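Aim 2, interim progress: modelling of the 1,3-dihydroxyacetonephosphate-bound target.
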Amino acid sequence: MIVALNNKSNLTKEEYKNYIEDLIKIECQSKIILCPTFLNLGSMTVKDIHLGAQNVSSTASGAYTGEVSASQLKSYNAEYCIVGHSERREYQKESNEEISLKINKLFTEGIIPILCVGETKEQRENNQVEAVLKEEILSATKTLSNEEKSKLIIAYEPIWSIGTGIIPTNIEITAVFKYIKEFLPDSKILYGGSANEKNVDILKEVSLIDGYLLGGLSLKPQDLKIFLNKLEN
Ligand code: 13P
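Predicted structure of the complex, ligand included:
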C-alpha cells in the first residue's frame, strides 16, 4: 500500500521537527510518501520515508518570482509531487492545461506526479462524476507516453469528502476506480477524503484501492499509527 501524507499548509519549523520525531517511530510495511510544505521539504531527509512536494511550477527555473521548479524539487530529493489538488484548482484557479504542463515538468525530472481528481457534491448529484473525471484525466495525460501514464499515480479525492468526515460508499469508490482504470489501466490509484483510523476498516474492503492520500490524519502521528496498523492487519 502507498500512504501519502499531505501536510497542506501546516506545521511551523519547530512543529515539523517534533512531528518528524513522532513519525519515524511508526513501524509499517506501507510505502510512506511525506508531502510537507516547500519550507519543510528542505529541512531534513528521513530514512524509509519518501519525499513528495505539494505543488510545482508549470515553468522551468528562471525569472518566475515565488515559483518552485521541478528541477529544484529534484535537487531536494523529492520523488513525488501532488498536482491538481482541488484546493489549488479552487483557490489558485489552476486549470487542467496548467496541470498538464506541471506533470510534464515533473516527468522531465523523473519525479512521479500524484494527480488529484474528483467531483463536487453538486456534480455528483447531477450525475457528472464520469464527465468530470474524464476531462481531468484526459487533459492531464494527453501528452504523456504510455510509460509515463503507467507511472502516474491518481488520487481520487471527492471534493465533498475532503475534511468533512463524510466518505463515499465502497460501491461508489469501486465504480469510480473502475472508470479511471479504463483510461489508465496500469496506474496506481489512491483514495483521499476524510480517510481515518475509524473508517479504514470499511475502506480497506475496496480491493481496487492501491493506497491513500491523507490530509488531516497526516498531522496526527498517533492516529496515523492506528490507521496503518488496521490497514495492514
Ligand atoms: P482530509 O484527509 O483532511 O479529508 O484531506 C484529504 C486531502 O485533501 C488530501 O490531499
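The chain has a mean pLDDT of 97. Strands lie at 2-6, 31-35, 49-53, 80-83, 112-117, 153-156, 188-192, 211-214.
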